[in-house]
Every structure is written in C-alpha cells, then in structure tokens.
Amino acid sequence: MTQKISVVVPAFNEEKNIPLFYARLKNIFANVSKYDVEMIFINDGSRDRTWQEIQKLAHNDAHVRGICFSRNFGHQIALTAGYDIAQGDAIISMDADMQDPPELIMDMLEKWHHGCDIVYARRKNRKDGFLKKLTAKMYYALLNNVSEVDIPRNVGDFRLIDKKVLNELKKCREKYRYLRGMVAWVGFTNCFVDFDRPNRVNGETAYTWKKMIKFAMDGFTGFSMFPLKIASYVGVFVIMTGSMMFLYVSYDFLLNSTPYPLYKWLVILVYIFIGVQFILMWLIGEYIGRIHDQQKERPLYVIREGINYVA
Ligand code: UDP
Ligand code: MG
Q1: What ligand 1 atom has the least distance to the C-alpha of 94?
Q2: Closest ligand 1 atom to the C-alpha of 200?
C-alpha cells in the first residue's frame, strides 16, 4: 500500500532555489515506491520569478501543487495555507532554501512509521552570529519557563506531522500564528532527528530583526499570560515596601515622638497607592488575558483515542 506524503514549502523570493529543491526531493524519492509524494509550494508574494518556476514544475509534474498569494502574508501564514490543502498521511514542512536538508526526510518517515506523531528536526549547532545565538538561547529559555506547553528548543518549522495532528491543528484558526508552539499545544507523541543546519544556498533570509521580534512576541503572547502577571509582582513589592515604611514612620513618631511633616506621610501613602494601582492593572490584565485566550478559539481538548467511544 502506498502512503501519501505532503511536503509543504513556503517560498518568498526563491526563484533559484525552487528548481534545485524540486530536483533534490525527486532524487530522494526516486527509488522508493511506497510513497506517493505531493509537493505544495506557496508563493508568498515573491517579487521575482518564484511563481513562474512553480508553474513550470506543476505543468510537467502533477504531483506539484501551488498556491500564489496576492501579496506577502508571511512565512507562518504561507505554511498554514499549505497545511490547509495538504492531503498526505504525513505532512512535512520545510524551507525552500535547502537549509532543511531534504535527505533528513527519510529519517523522519522512519520515526513516523515507528509511531511518532510529530517528528521535529532539531538543529545541533547553529551557524548564526553570536548575537543571534545568544538571543535565541535566552528567548527559548524564557519562553519555556513561562509557556503553558513545552515548546522544544532549537527547533524551527522543519518537522513532520501525522494527519491526525494536522486535523487538530487546522481547528486552531488564531490570527497570530506561532506554529511551532501550536503543534506542541496539540500534543500527541513527539520525537527528534538531529541535524547540522547548513547556510542558505541562494538569496538571503527574509527574517529581519524586525520580523523576528514580531515573531518572538507572537510566541510569547500566544502561549503565555506571564507578561500580564508582571503587574501583580510589582504591585505586591510596592505595597509591601510601602507598608514597611509606613510602619517604621508610625513607630518612630509614636515612640520617639519624631516629628514628620505632612508631605512625608503623603509620599508614603501615595507610594502604597501606586502599588494598589498595579494590582488593579493586573486584575484588568487577567480579564484581557481571558478574552485573548477565548478569541483564539482553540479546541477545548484534543483526544488521542477512545474506548467504546463514539464521536
Ligand atoms: N518565507 C515566506 N514568506 C516570508 C518569509 C519567508 O514564505 O515572508 C519562506 C522562505 O522562502 C523560506 C522559509 O519561509 O522558504 C524560511 O524563510 P528564511 O529562509 O528566510 O528564514 P530563515 O531560514 O533564515 O530563518
Ligand atoms: Mg532559511
């Protein structure tokens, strides 16, 4: 029995990489007959001939499917569009620039056959600059600490997911999409294959610092309410220190009869009151957090299997 595999490839200004990518993928599956492979390219508003290259491939090979966006919607949205039309039993997402070596696909499929529902490709060592390495490390450590689900580190969007994972993922229609977090949120079993991430073959990365910061914020706000809770810590700290000051001044005034002018009392009271305001801000934040959570409209739960169970 052949199994259907979908390879989803978002592409933004990748005219040179598309034919190379196609050839490499074809080569991998050349001697394997048990898979029926579809390749889905999403042209994310490229300004070069990416779409023409995709069209050319699709004309000659019915296994190539393409979507052309009306403008640039961003990598995560392009990936989502590919996921939406993928028909495979396993779906693999990867870059068009050969930074995600297609040769790894066989290892991923192997793990999938052994019952792993999500196979992440994990980067063993990054070739990025010092600053990017450091910020990435700090970011993932922080995100992991505050996130409601375990988002694996050193993992990008190169992964295989089983069809059942995809079906659940498709129910999550939130607008700010941090797919690697969403996949972790869905659950099921996961495992890793390790690889060295090579440099881009042609062109340059579209992930500028600005886009990366936005992406990092999507990860935070999508999977953690921690930022909203900061106000509560500040509030408690301010009220506690303010109360101590107040106690000290009262004690000094009552027992030692030290005179304190009115404005000194007021400064302490205002200080305490600022703490109260922080607590109120945190309370408002909790409501906003719940609204935010609600509007994501993720499913309430995900079922792995049932027994004597009718859906
Ligand atoms: N990409 C996209 N839309 C964008 C930016 C990037 O579809 O707005 C694609 C790009 O063509 C590539 C993948 O997403 O296939 C990852 O982007 P890139 O290689 O620039 O990121 P990096 O690997 O440097 O993180
Ligand atoms: Mg890349």
Answers
A1: 15
A2: 19
Residue 99 CA to its chain's centroid (Å): 18
pLDDT above 80 (res 311): no
Q: How far is the CA of 30 from the centre of ligand 1 (A)?
A: 27
Pocket test for ligand 1, best of 7, 67, 95, 214 (most atoms within 8 A of CB): 95
Contact 99 CB / ligand 1 (< 6 Å) = yes
Tell me the C-alpha to C-alpha distance, in Å, between residue 45 and each of 16, 34, 71, 250.
Answer: 16, 34, 4, 68
Is there a contact between 44 and 72 (Cβ–Cβ < 8 Å)?
A: yes
Nearest to 54 by CA among 11, 98, 6: 11
> What is the tens place of the pLDDT at every residue in 22-36?
999 999 998 888 999
Judged on CB neighbours under 10 Å (0-12, 13-18, 19+), 141 is exposed
Q: In the numeric block, which tokens belong to residue 125?
A: 């060592």
CA–CA gap between residue 131 and residue 107 (Å, rounded): 31
pLDDT at 198: 85
- Take atom 23 of ligand 1 and give the residue whose Cα is closest: 205
The region of weakest confidence among 68-72, 106-110, 116-120, 133-137 is: 133-137
Instruction: Output phi, psi for 149, to 5 deg.
Output: -125, 160
